[in-house]
TrEMBL record:
<dbReference type="InterPro" id="IPR006091">
    <property type="entry name" value="Acyl-CoA_Oxase/DH_mid-dom"/>
</dbReference>
<keyword id="KW-0285">Flavoprotein</keyword>
<dbReference type="InterPro" id="IPR037069">
    <property type="entry name" value="AcylCoA_DH/ox_N_sf"/>
</dbReference>
<keyword id="KW-0560">Oxidoreductase</keyword>
<dbReference type="Pfam" id="PF02770">
    <property type="entry name" value="Acyl-CoA_dh_M"/>
</dbReference>
<dbReference type="InterPro" id="IPR052033">
    <property type="entry name" value="Glutaryl-CoA_DH_mitochondrial"/>
</dbReference>
<dbReference type="Pfam" id="PF00441">
    <property type="entry name" value="Acyl-CoA_dh_1"/>
</dbReference>
<dbReference type="InterPro" id="IPR009075">
    <property type="entry name" value="AcylCo_DH/oxidase_C"/>
</dbReference>
<keyword id="KW-0809">Transit peptide</keyword>
<dbReference type="GO" id="GO:0033539">
    <property type="term" value="P:fatty acid beta-oxidation using acyl-CoA dehydrogenase"/>
</dbReference>
<dbReference type="InterPro" id="IPR013786">
    <property type="entry name" value="AcylCoA_DH/ox_N"/>
</dbReference>
<dbReference type="InterPro" id="IPR009100">
    <property type="entry name" value="AcylCoA_DH/oxidase_NM_dom_sf"/>
</dbReference>
<keyword id="KW-0274">FAD</keyword>
<dbReference type="GO" id="GO:0050660">
    <property type="term" value="F:flavin adenine dinucleotide binding"/>
</dbReference>
<dbReference type="GO" id="GO:0046949">
    <property type="term" value="P:fatty-acyl-CoA biosynthetic process"/>
</dbReference>
<feature type="domain" description="Acyl-CoA dehydrogenase/oxidase C-terminal">
    <location>
        <begin position="235"/>
        <end position="381"/>
    </location>
</feature>
<dbReference type="InterPro" id="IPR036250">
    <property type="entry name" value="AcylCo_DH-like_C"/>
</dbReference>
Length: 388
């Protein structure tokens, strides 16, 4: 029997263990998040962020693709499937997990000292400590090399001054990974958020990612010991390596938002009657649904292919950009098309469509705008860098 959500039978490409991971994530979303997410979005808050982090940590979802230090050590495909299910509930929930695991925890795991790993990773994996990742600044998004945050030596200490903007988890975080200019180039620092001079202000008035904590970080003479710095990494290669990890999760996650909207539109079209028949019986509606199904299938196959590569030979940056650019663009198109099928009901929070559509407007430009990913792919094709 045909599954309208899986016309190509891509589920046959998953192992029983991978399906079990997906089912476990879906269950926690259905029980602990789905009944409340529309209200959280409408209220513009995530009031249970700490409780939710602990619950997700208890399932091994935080830093789940990392090895050791309390992390689950699961595959890239497992992690991708988890991101898809989380974002099928809400992009803000997937962002909580992505920033915790693929940005803050990954940075500490890959670039940190053994002491930093032992201090933070077990607590972060359990959801007992929340992390954030401070790279973007008010005037430096796509061009992080122009960042103004500075770290200077003062005796054996480091002193940090600067501002970071649009930081997920910022005002609830226990630890921030902050990138700053130094005399040696860009370096990363592990900053406990209780350090004097560190403050975080929640950003209000968002119309997207409303069920997510987004903050501005201010570092005003934040004094850190020498061992707070990542010891080896210099330059933008450090933060960009973390961004590639997060972008990988996004290329899966966006498909979850798309699937939720496609499922909603398919059901609505079968129930909604106009001119004496369900609108699913009209050719133009069927054309929309068919196009949505094709793009959802294509995106899923691309994500699964990239996941298998990541688990075997690894991914190059342009391959991650290929996935993020295609899947987010197509997911946003699917959500917008679903909105048209629902008509006026498409803008109501009684249905998930407008929430996913608005969220994906942020997903489209964070972790690299479409323009930047296009140029990454263009450079891989031509050998010419066109960023400047």
């Amino acid at each position: 029997m045909t599954d309208p959500l899986d016309l190509a039978g891509t589920d046959d490409l998953l192992s029983p263990e991978e399906k079990a991971v997906r089912a476990a994530v879906r269950q926690v979303c259905d029980v602990s998040i789905e009944p409340y997410i529309a209200r959280w979005y409408e209220d513009g808050e995530l009031p249970v962020v700490r409780e939710l982090a602990k619950e997700l940590g208890s399932l091994g979802l935080l830093g789940m693709h990392l090895e050791g230090y309390g992390c689950a050590g699961m595959s890239a495909v497992d992690y991708g499937l988890a991101c898809l299910e989380l974002e099928a509930t809400d992009s803000g929930i997937r962002s909580l997990v992505s920033v915790q695991g693929s940005l803050a925890m990954y940075a500490i795991r890959r670039h940190g000292t053994e002491e930093q790993r032992r201090e933070w990773l077990p607590r972060m994996a359990a959801g007992e400590a929340i992390g954030c990742f401070g790279l973007t600044e008010p005037d430096h998004g796509s061009d992080p090399g122009g960042m103004r945050t500075r770290a200077r030596h003062d005796g054996s200490d480091w002193v940090l001054d600067g501002t970071k903007m649009w930081i997920t988890n910022g005002s609830v975080a226990d630890v921030a990974v902050v990138w700053a200019q130094t005399e040696e180039g860009v370096r990363g620092f592990v900053v406990p958020t209780g350090t004097p001079g560190f403050s975080a202000v929640t950003i209000k008035h968002k119309m997207s990612l409303r069920a997510s904590v987004t903050s501005e970080l201010v570092l005003d003479g934040v004094r850190l010991p020498a061992e707070a710095a990542f010891p080896e990494v210099r330059g933008l290669g450090g933060p960009l390596s973390c961004l590639n990890e997060a972008r990988y999760g996004i290329l899966w996650g966006a498909l979850g938002a798309a699937r939720s909207c496609f499922r909603t539109a398919l059901a609505y079209a079968g129930d909604r009657t106009q001119f004496g028949r369900p609108i699913s019986g009209f050719q133009l509606t069927q054309a929309k649904l068919a196009d949505m199904a094709v793009e959802l299938t294509n995106g899923t196959l691309l994500a699964l292919h990239l996941g298998r590569r990541k688990d075997t030979v690894g991914l190059r940056p342009e391959q991650v950009s290929l996935g993020k650019l295609n899947n987010v663009n197509k997911a946003l198109e699917i959500c917008r098309t679903a909105r048209t099928i629902l008509g006026a009901n498409g803008i109501s929070l009684e249905f998930p469509v407008i929430r996913h559509m608005n969220n994906l407007e942020s997903v489209l430009t964070y972790e690299g705008t479409p323009e930047m990913h296009t140029l990454v792919i263009g450079q891989a094709l031509t050998g010419q860098a066109a960023f400047r």
